[in-house]
Amino acid sequence: MGLRNVILEGDEVLRKRSKEVKEVSGRILSLLDDMWETLESYNGIGLAAPQVGVLRRLAVIDTGAEGERIELINPRIISAEGSAEEEEGCLSFPGLIGIVERPQRLTVEAMGRDGKLFTIEGEGLLAKALSHEIDHLDGVLFVDKAISLEEA
Ligand code: CO
């Protein structure tokens, strides 16, 4: 399939809770591939499946750190520590940035494309991205949590 359309603010689909992935099928793998292609086309940091109109618990993250290409299936926050207030944006809200309080460190358990569970620990930008993308899976958007918002 390739590039998918990114759903923009105002669309109800962004507000829905995504469902667990029961099986890492070929369809899920090609969705992940399309999500990467879409994310890269925007030079984005993260993308969650509901942002391409699919209500499944999937997200991809690349903060730009070397060798980092994180795929999360059914991610679940195990622990969160500290907090940081920093700027962030979202591909579903082009031209908008907000200051959002996020955990400074986050530990997440998820399934990989091999169907195996793994744990990832994120700090700083990665913690922020993990928190932001997992929120999408519950229909929570960064504007809900933003302390302030402004046009980029
Ligand atoms: Co977002």
**Tally of individual helices:** 3
Mean of all residue-level pLDDT scores: 96
CA gyration radius, whole angstroms: 14 Å
CATH architecture: Alpha-Beta Complex
Low-pLDDT stretches are none
Read across the widest sheet, the strand sequence of neighbours is 1-2-3-6-7
User: CATH fold name, please?
Assistant: Peptide Deformylase
Strand-pairing-aware structural class: alpha+beta
Oligomer: single chain
Number of strands: 8
Describe, in plain words, how this protein is organized in 3D.
- The protein has 152 residues and is α+β, with helices and mostly antiparallel strands.
- The protein has one domain (12-151): Peptide deformylase (Peptide Deformylase, Alpha-Beta Complex).
- Helix content is 22%, strand content 34%.
- The chain contains three helices and eight strands.
- A five-stranded antiparallel β-sheet has the order 1-2-3-6-7, with helices on both faces. It has a three-stranded antiparallel β-sheet with strand order 4-5-8.
- A hairpin with a 5-residue loop joins β6 (105-111) and β7 (117-123).
- The longest helix is centred in the N-terminal third of the chain and has 16 residues, at 26-41.
- The N and C termini lie far apart (31 Å).
- The model has no long low-confidence stretch (mean pLDDT 96).
- The site of cobalt (II) ion has 5 residues, from α2.
